[in-house]
What we know:
8 helices; about 30% helix; about 25% strand
Amino acid sequence: MDIKDSRIDSGKAFDWGKTSEAYAKYRDIYPEEFYQKVADRGLCIKGQRVLDLGTGTGVLPRNMYKFGAEWVGTDISPEQIEQAKILSESAGMNIDFRAVSAEKIDFPSESFDVLTACQCFWYFDHDKVAPEFSRILKKDGKLVVLFMAWLPFEDEIAGKSEDLVCKYSPDWSGGGETKHPIFIPDVMFDYFEFVDHEEYNLMVPFTKESWHGRMFACRGVGASLSPDELDKWDAEHREMLKDYPDSFEVKHYAAIAVLKKK
């Protein structure tokens, strides 16, 4: 399913379905601290019903399943949802995954204690989703926005890999990250109030192969390049990685923002 959004990559089409298998294999990379910071806030834990929006391959609900919440996950990509179901079922997890965009969810009012949006919040049409998110949350329900990104100006490998993404996808708008709070559009504050935020550094371990896979599974590469462009990127990125050890860490930062229903 091609997605085009003038706010993203200058409107260049991308399709997460092209990367779903690689996404499932290489993008389950958040350190335990990432999940623990959510649970330590009393969120996504036993006794709560949680909806994970833009769930992708179900990374967040699968990794937080141990904390005891009841999970539902939605995503616009049927291929991503297919992978989420395969991974959760193979692990014996009872998670309700559905292929539907955030703008078209239609749950009963006050269905959830918590909504989560990990690595996807900027894709939403906030004017449409803000009132709907409020409607389906219970009284005092929470919206949790999560993000993690490599730091290309502080980490050499991240910087060189990002340069190669930009070489083949010059309109890619996913690069150039520095540590900062998650941006929350003004319309969200018509329905929610800010509760908490935190930004913190993380060192994320990779092998050459897993980092190559992680880069392939980004929007500017596997989700949008042509087969010929992918072959060229693949060869050039593998050649670049020859200068580095077989295993290494890449500096990232993570961020969390918590909002409460008014």
